[in-house]
Amino acid sequence: MSNADLASWVMPDTEITRAETSERARLLRVRSYQVDLDFTRGPETFGSVSLIRFDCHEPGAATHADLIATGVREIILNGVPLDPQATWADGRITLPGLASRNELRVAADCAYTTSGTGMHRADSGDGSVHIYAKLAQAYARTAYACFDQPDLKAVFTFQVTAPAHWAVLSNQPQDHAERASAGSRTVRFLPTPPVPTFTTTVVAGDYHIVTTEHATPDGQQIPLELACRASLARYLDADAVFALTRQGLDFYTGWLETAYPFGKYGHVFVPEFPHLASENAGCVLVSERLLFRSRATAAQLGSRTGTLLHEMAHMWFGDSATQQWWDDLWLSESFANFCEYFAQSSLGLAPDPWSIFSAAEKLPCFAEDRLPSSHPVASGATTVSDAVANLDGITYAKGASVLRQLSAYVGEENFAAGLRAYLARHSYGNARLADILAAITDASGQDLAAWSETWLKTAGPDVLRPSFETGSSGTFTSFAVLQKAAGRHPVLRPHRICIGLYSRSGDGALRRVRQVTAEIDGPRSELPELVGMAQPELIVLNDDDTAYVLVRFDDRSLRAVTESVGDIPDLPARAACWTAVIDMARQAELPVRTFATMLAGGMRTERSVRILQALHAHADKLITTFADSRQAAQCKAILASAAADLLCSAEPGSDHQLSWFGLLSWTAANEDELQLLAALLDGTRTVPGLVLDAEPRWTALRHLAAFGEADDARIDAELARDPSDAGRRNAAACRAAIPDPGHKEAAWRLLVNETTGPETVAAVADGLMQPEHADLLLPYTARFLAEMPDLWRTRGGHMRVRLANVLFPYPAVTPELLPRLDGFLAAEGSDRGLSRIVRDHRDTAERVLRARALDLSPGRG
To answer: pTM of the full predicted structure?
Structure first.
């Protein structure tokens, strides 16, 4: 059975439902798994043997185990063989006539994947092999027979047979027992504490491993591991990663007053990973994107720091104290996201991490929270597919935002005490929303029922704007804050915000002259304390950027922000201003060109490289999605002119210099800028301090290819310089950017190929979707609607969602597309999950057309 056949079998026939798993959890208590995996059987399949010991509270009852495999060789229940032909179908093994204590043995052949989920196998061009198991959510059943649900936790013992020269890792340290035979060896690992199936993993292949040990302040000894592909070992900064790991373990064990819950802690950098990282207990999988092949800026290092601290928090929130079912994934992800930034702030690892959170995570989350698919942080779901569909920025960033608000509401110490009590009660067990609320309520004495209903069980953001009148002297005669619910969810929430009033100082800066704290509740909240104040040049609502709320400006303030955002010294206030303006552009309230002009001016004085690079990424997405070809050219010209000037004047070798090159490498448009880019690549022109190694070279080459300035031969020459897997991925992205029908068609075929991995899909899609290529991309609007249903049916969960998002050709959106999308959504038999994504595309496409139609006269942008 091919991987495509396997994926088509996974969905929807084998959907896991909450009702069935609730009944199974009522019947069973799983005591242990022994899982034997054999990776010596070739590149397509591996051997899998599960021995499961479990109890049944109602002897004589029947249930089922989960298994998706290419074949089942043996099923034995309590010593009695069961016929696989009769008992195994649609990913389930029927288990009749259970005893009070049971033993199930299943021997199967399972398929490797190339999607970054399940048992992923990457065969590199140099002949090396790298395997890893990414089993969340509900992919453990593709690797071994199990009860694949989070509330049937058990002790796991893994045993792996692999080629003798391979490294092998799992959740726990290796047992000392190891058997070797001709060309292979078998490694057994120590038993885990009780963990859910989705957080188990094995890693095997040509990996380079570094080990050490750490003692926490309480004396806990924790073995540490670090691994990556052997071919990338020279890029592994083991000292830096181990130093961060030690800091993180000391911080979390101290703050939570709870020991680290597993027998070791490891990071493994893996290829073609669909996420930045994944929190397998004691063995975190990390994307190779965070193993930097080029000089890393402080922004990139800071992003890696945050990601690793996020995954470490999961050791307590998610892996040890686990959500009872998938609809409470926020108990894992929201808490880990909050901890990521709280830890960075507490450890002093970044200047103002919460402003970085705002620019990098909260701002994109607002876009998702305005879509038709918006949902509450704590959302009900009846199937795994529904729950996974809600695993988005709302679950991560909005959840972290409201937890930050909750910490301020009950007090930081009470909040921490509640978390400690929650972990004390639920470590190695399961929990629901009510459990965390009860723990924090007990610690703080605050009734959180109303807070939970308002913030965790409603969807959408609120929008605040100032409303005031002034007298002849220019002072306020009245001042109020108006609140309106955004979009489809008419919920007005209470907000505690700071309001900042800014005026020009002698040095030209926009300095805060007054800040007031306001309680906002309902559609209009009066602020009599501001009556009599002179109207300043700028009024910023949510001035400290702590509330999860969108804001708007009065006309004078909007003019000050778009012209002078860089003159605001306070980073949280700047972050609040950037958030507001970018949201206005996304909602077709402000021309994209106005934002580009604002960025070209405001970025010149931005000191935070992490904020700067986040803003550049937002600009790229705004221009690619919302601008037509002419508008995209205008916006890029504005940014490229500033980038070229700043590149040549930046401090040599600085992170800012590399950031200006990065901006130029996707905005250069006129002949002089393109020639500068090409000359920097071929070495005929240099900028003091600027070193262009692999990744920035590929980014620039892709842009030259998009403008017809680099052909296949030029791409081949660059690939000869960098013949790595990453080089081949980047070369494919460059070819996708070449502006002719043949290259676009080849890129599309590569994207829909079943063997193309998730990181390659992302890179090639970026190359394909150039805003200047709208005419070339126009045929792919019909291709998307014609081909996506079959892709959705034949691909696994994460990959099909990725394809449904990246294949939609926003540069080619026209008014004629909207009725075609309506027809697609109205068709009978449409898959609910795919329709959800297409409905979001339709909503965005309508805003795209409004944004492109905005008046772009000099007064508007």
So the answer is: 0.95
- Beta-strand pair 462-470/550-551: parallel
**DSSP symbols for 78-132:** TTEEE-HHHHEETTEEEE-S--SEEEEEEEEEEE-BSSSSEEEEEE-TTS-EEEE
Which of 498, 503, 656, 500 has the alpha carbon at shortest distance from 567? 503
Kindly state the tokens that stand for 723: 């013949």
Q: Is the peptide bond before 159 cis (omega within 30 degrees of 0)?
A: no
51 dihedral zone (left: phi>0; alpha: psi -120 to 50; beta)? beta
Burial (Cβ within 10 Å: 0-12, 13-18, ≥19) of residue 503 = middle
Least confident range from 182-196, 369-383, 612-626: namely 369-383
Round to whole Å and give the CA distance between 105 and 381.
32
Contact 549, 497 (CB under 8 A): yes
pLDDT of residue 351: 86
Which has the closest alpha carbon to 736: 713, 709, 784, 770? 770
Is 23 a residue of the active site? Answer: no
Annotated catalytic residue, options 225, 272, 279, 311: 311
Label residue 508 left, alpha or beta by phi (over 0 means left) and psi (-120 to 50 means alpha).
left
DSSP per-residue letters across 499-567? EEEEEE-TTS-EEEEEEEEEEE-SSEEE-GGGTTSBP-SEEEETTT--SS-EE---HHHHHHHHHHGGG
> Using an 8 Å Cβ cutoff, are 614 and 590 in contact?
no
Q: How confident is the model at residue 860 (pLDDT cuts 50, 70, 90)?
A: very low
Measured CA to CA, the distance from residue 73 to residue 75 in angstroms comes to 7
Count CB-CB contacts under 10 A for residue 178.
11
